[in-house]
Amino acid sequence: MAELTHMIDSEVFLAFSTYATIIVLKMMLMSPMTGYFRLTRKAFANQEDTSLTSSTEDKKKMVRVDPDVERVRRCHQNDLENIIPFVVIGLLYTLTGPDLSTALLHFRVFVGSRLCHTVAYVLPLPQPSRALAFLTGLVTTSSMAYRVLITALYL
Amino acid sequence: MAELTHMIDSEVFLAFSTYATIIVLKMMLMSPMTGYFRLTRKAFANQEDTSLTSSTEDKKKMVRVDPDVERVRRCHQNDLENIIPFVVIGLLYTLTGPDLSTALLHFRVFVGSRLCHTVAYVLPLPQPSRALAFLTGLVTTSSMAYRVLITALYL
Amino acid sequence: MAELTHMIDSEVFLAFSTYATIIVLKMMLMSPMTGYFRLTRKAFANQEDTSLTSSTEDKKKMVRVDPDVERVRRCHQNDLENIIPFVVIGLLYTLTGPDLSTALLHFRVFVGSRLCHTVAYVLPLPQPSRALAFLTGLVTTSSMAYRVLITALYL
């Protein structure tokens, strides 16, 4: 791997920091979005949470499952399953010293694919739009993992 | 970003390593806690798991959902959704060379807020205690993300 | 902590990169495996996903929960809860400058335990095989966390 003192101030590392932060922030936004749907749909997971709404309806009935809330939660879960591997493998990939243009291509395609995935999941758009967005992200991360393995392989 | 050779041995990096390890260990403890509740409540997710208890009751009925187990699992899931973004963004934040006192403030507030969140979720405490603990953590991570983006922005 | 310029090109770092990438790739494979079970069992989470199968059966009935799909999903969730802490704590552990042989032992035991865990979960094997694989991974990560804390402790 390239010497880190030179790597860490490189444009590749700055680009990784930027795209990783943006897509992790996107993932974090799914929590308030779930909260918004829970409050507007009056569908909570815990009895004590029903006190957060000022509604005068029967609070016991508000501990229930709502399809819109579950949709946002599945989107969030898919983010966890895909964005965190991207961050881990992307960091190691950055330390292998890739070309700036190649690295930017990987980061931009991944972040773009996950933004499309969220839109396709929450609206929802007809399939296979979400499946394609998901696969694009998976292939991008796998491509970075391939470079890490051929560069750093030490078993 | 600051030169890493100087950063990595800095007090900010040591502080990040300490607080990140503590809060990730806390998150890992949720797994044994779930196991403890599954064993004591006799509520398992898999048929083969019922052999782990010496109870002579009907083992088929032990594959069931228990409210206490689900509460711990939701707490664990919320940890995954919030502690991992903290670790990712906190590492990049550490590399931007923040003041030690500012960095310590972020790390301590985040770790404190997540400890409060777990207590508020598992006991449970009345709302909005858990909501406030959750929001405090979210704002802390967002504040670090803001510094990463203004320091490293490279699109 | 050891000076990073020397650490990052060290064999410990290369070994960490290799094992972390392998086990994160394994975790990512759980997504296509879930998709495969959803398609073959005709059990989808979203109404729009039923268009991905060419089956002529009633598509409304395909939005359902299937035990095999849920088993793979629980395995994936357990991976998230254990592999990500390993990656975070393993990276910090690598930067504390451990012996190569000790580090390799940790990385190999962890990766091996998680491969056993997946086999034990998906087949499934009788308990306590899965419980032992899970505990082995937990103890390995905790051992690395202990070294991070005694090396870097800064509260």
Automatic annotation (TrEMBL), chains A, B, C:
EC code: 2.5.1.18
Keyword annotations from UniProtKB, A to Z: Acetylation, Endoplasmic reticulum, Membrane, Mitochondrion, Mitochondrion outer membrane, Transferase, Transmembrane, Transmembrane helix
Topological relation to the membrane, as annotated: Multi-pass membrane protein
Catalytic EC class: transferase
This protein's GO CC annotations: endoplasmic reticulum membrane; mitochondrial outer membrane
Catalyzed reaction equations: RX + glutathione = an S-substituted glutathione + a halide anion + H(+)
Entry superkingdom: Eukaryota
InterPro entries cross-referenced by the UniProt entry: MAPEG-like_dom_sf (IPR023352), Membr-assoc_MAPEG (IPR001129), MGST1-like (IPR040162)
GO molecular function: glutathione transferase activity
Main location: endoplasmic reticulum
Matching Gene3D superfamilies: Membrane associated eicosanoid/glutathione metabolism-like domain
Entry's localization field: Endoplasmic reticulum membrane; Mitochondrion outer membrane
Transmembrane segments: 12-29, 83-111, 131-154
Pfam family, one: MAPEG
Family indicated by similarity: Belongs to the MAPEG family.
Function as written in the Swiss-Prot or TrEMBL entry: Conjugation of reduced glutathione to a wide number of exogenous and endogenous hydrophobic electrophiles.
Subunit structure: Homotrimer; The trimer binds only one molecule of glutathione.
Record protein name field: Microsomal glutathione S-transferase 1
